[in-house]
Amino acid sequence: MDEDTVEFCNKFIKSLEDCEEAGNFLEPVDYKALGLFDYPMIIKHPMDLSTCKKKLKHGKYYNFEKVLKDISQIWENCRIYNQAGSLIVQQADFMEEFQKKYLTENPLPVRMPQKRSREESDEISFEKKFYFAEKIRKSPQDVLIKVFSIVENNCKHSIEKMGDYFRIRVDKLDKTTFETIENLLNQEATKKEKKSLPPTGK
């Protein structure tokens, strides 16, 4: 999350903590001290405001929706475990209404995406490179020859001679060459799948 969203989340959690009805939701439920030994069997995803703050501080949330999901889980857990209409459930209901009101009056700031530079937009993720390399490694000889030909013609600097054989440095491929080879590998995989299908009778 960007700094603005983190700051928004911190203020949001602080506003919840400051509510008079928040006392039972500030820390994890100490079910052993309270003698609630069935609590972990009933509540599968325990959550509280201090845990939300810690997760936010340590970068465990990727977006505001994840924060909101955890906070909403606090009120839901309370309703699941406790008797409907009980004081603590009334407190959870109040907190949920306060949450809705706060977010209506204080909407999440939206940052307009900046136009990425060509260098950034041409970057290939590590995950894509990894699966790409795996596809090449598992390809048959005839496909490898086609791949090598594409690289030799378009991105020769990514070829390294290793004794009696050549190695393609995936990390040195430019985006155009990468995508050309990726399309080839996908086409070859589709052909292989079609060949492996049993013949259909009429």
From TrEMBL:
Q: Which InterPro entries match?
A: Bromo_chromatin_reader, Bromodomain, Bromodomain-like_sf, NET_dom, NET_sf
UniProt record, GO biological process: chromatin remodeling; regulation of DNA-templated transcription
Cellular compartments per GO CC: chromatin; nucleus
Q: SMART domains attached here?
A: BROMO
Q: CDD domains annotated for this entry?
A: Bromodomain
The Bromo domain covers 17-89
The answer, when asked if Cell wall biogenesis/degradation is one of the entry's keywords, is no
UniProt KW keywords: Bromodomain
Task: Quote the protein name from its UniProt record.
Answer: Bromo domain-containing protein
Q: Which organism is it from?
A: Stentor coeruleus
